[in-house]
Amino acid sequence: MGHVLARLAGFGMTLTPRWPYSFERASDTPPAVRVTTGEGESTRIACVTAVTGPPRVELTNARDVDDVVDVQPGPAEPHWRIETSAYALAWPAGFTVESPPADDFSPFLLWGPGDALLHVQGPVDRERIPPPPQLAGPGQRLVDHRADPAFEAVELAYRHEGDEWRQLHHLVALDEKQALVVTSQCPARHSELVRSAAETVARSLTTSPAHGASPSEAGREATAEEHE
């Protein structure tokens, strides 16, 4: 298998894709995932469905499922989780899981409607993260700041290419020294869906058993603004 930083687990399966890749829900009943790898004419697709017995696989432009994704037995829980070497989280509804560009250190990106984007940063040293109200960048204004037992969150408003956008940062403490930062951004018309997805991710984050004391290479510093 090619190098990959994230995999999908649930419904008795673990799916580890070839890079570059995307995961998309093909069906909820029965649970099925469309895995895409490659680009252009080299695009290959495997639709993997959880059924009684071995998973059912339908291929497009691929001779073998291993050309697209490694399918192995996994946890029986009736929901999907995204797993990395440092943490795991629930896969929020309405989002696809995609590999990042080569120059992006995130292990994966979550894309939603209208170019909505959600990603997880870290683990990072908490002392490197500014106080949430100070995360507003130039042209952004703070519209919400709240604390929850699972996270602390801020919501920022700004304009991008003439449209009203929202950006949210959810800070999830792992211990006294480290935290994960869930950053999301979207057109304001999709803010309810994205806010719910970001909260789902923040509440479900757990560290992976293999995660050590040192920060993961997947992490990067929290930034106040993603758009250039």
What is the element layout, followed by pairings?
Elements: E1 7-10, E2 13-17, E3 21-28, E4 31-37, E5 44-49, E6 56-60, E7 69-73, E8 81-83, E9 87-90, E10 96-98, E11 109-111, E12 117-125, E13 141-148, E14 151-160, E15 163-173, E16 178-187, H1 191-204, E17 206-207
Explained architecture:
By secondary structure, the protein is mainly β. Helices cover 6% and strands 45% of the residues. It contains one helix and 17 strands. The strands form two sheets. The chain has an eleven-stranded antiparallel sheet with strand order 6-5-4-3-10-11-12-16-15-14-13, covered by helices on one side. Strands 7-2-1-8-9-17 form a six-stranded antiparallel sheet. The radius of gyration is 18 Å and the shape is globular. It starts with 6 loop residues before the first strand and ends in a 21-residue tail after the last strand. Mean pLDDT is 89; it is low at 210-225.
SS strand fraction? over 45%
Give the low-pLDDT segments.
210-225
User: What's the oligomerization state?
Assistant: single chain
Number of helices: 1
What are the defining features of this structure?
228 residues, mainly beta, eleven-stranded antiparallel beta sheet, six-stranded antiparallel beta sheet, 1 helix, 17 strands
Quick description:
By secondary structure, the protein is mainly beta.
